[in-house]
Each structure stands twice: as structure tokens, then as C-alpha cells.
Amino acid sequence: MGTNYQGSTSEINTLNAFIKVMRCTESLNTRLNKHLSEVNLTTSQFGTLEVLKHLGPLNQRTIGEKLLKSGGNITMVIDNLEKTGYVVRKKDPDDRRAILVHLTKKGKLFIDDFFPKHLEKIKAEFSVLTEEEKIQFAAICKKIGTNSES
Fold first, then answer.
1. How far, in Å, CA of 137 to CA of 128, rounded?
2. Do the Cβ atoms of 79 and 45 come closer than 8 Å?
3. Measuring CA to CA, which residue among 55, 33, 57 is closest to residue 46?
4. Do 137 and 129 meet the contact criterion of CB atoms below 8 Å apart?
5. What are 93-145's pLDDT values in tens digits?
């Protein structure tokens, strides 16, 4: 479904592109979030576990920046992951003022097992694209996402 707006060709093309990307994002999130909900994780919780798996212990601010989430939101996400036993906060040995979030053994075992399964779901979603289209799509999304003119 496209726009019903009666404007210039450029405006209509822009609105149609926007509608398509938003619908695509919503559809993709709905399908992938179903997989996360099966293991009682939110997107932010999964993102936190994933970033800790791939980058190691980080402070909350860095996690928030990686996930594009506010400090308050990340605090709640980490609180909930602590309750499940997946992460623990520890003092940074290099900076006594800083706290780092670490995966626990339980968290590491979980994300090491779950990540490949989730990746398979993501691969299935993107299987409609060629490798070249995936590269182009990623570049286009990055171009829009890093647009500083808006």
C-alpha cells in the first residue's frame, strides 16, 4: 500500500519509500520478536546479551549507545537480565568509579546456544534477497540512518 497524498513525484516517492521501510521493519520485528518471546526475552534484552557476547563486558552507557536506547531503559533491561541470572554488574578494575556489565556463566551458555538459532531466523527473513541486494540494502539503511541533515 502506498500513499494517497497528492503531491510532487518526489514527495510521493519519498512517502512510498518511507511507508515500505516502516512496514518492512514492523513485519520483520513481529516475526523475529515471536522467536524472542518464546524464550522470554525482549529485543533490548537480546541485544544486550548479544553485544556482551561479541564485545565483552561494557558499561551501561556503551550498551545503550550500541542499542540506541536511553540510560533509564538500559538500567531496567540490565536489572531484568540480572534477575534471570544472565548478567552481573561488577566494578571496573581499571576505573573504581565505573561498573561493567558481564555475562554470567548461565548468560554465556544461553546466548551461545540461542544466538545461532536466532541468526537462522534472520537468515530466513533475508533469504529473499541476493547477496548483492543485502549489501545494497545495508548501505541504503546506513545512509538514511546516519543522515545528519534532518
1. 12
2. no
3. 33
4. yes
5. 888 888 999 999 999 999 999 999 999 999 999 999 999 999 999 999 999 98
Give the count of alpha carbons within 13 A of 110, CB side only.
20
Tell me the pTM: 0.85
Phi/psi for 85 (5° steps) reads 85, 15
Cell of 111: 546466548
Alpha carbons within 13 angstroms on the beta-carbon side of residue 99 total: 9
Query: Alpha-carbon distance 3 to 30, whole Å?
Result: 23
CATH 1.10.10.10 fits 41-120, yes or no: yes
CA atoms of 114 and 110, how far apart (whole Å): 6
| Geometric angle at alpha carbon 29, from 28 and 34, rounded to 5° | 105
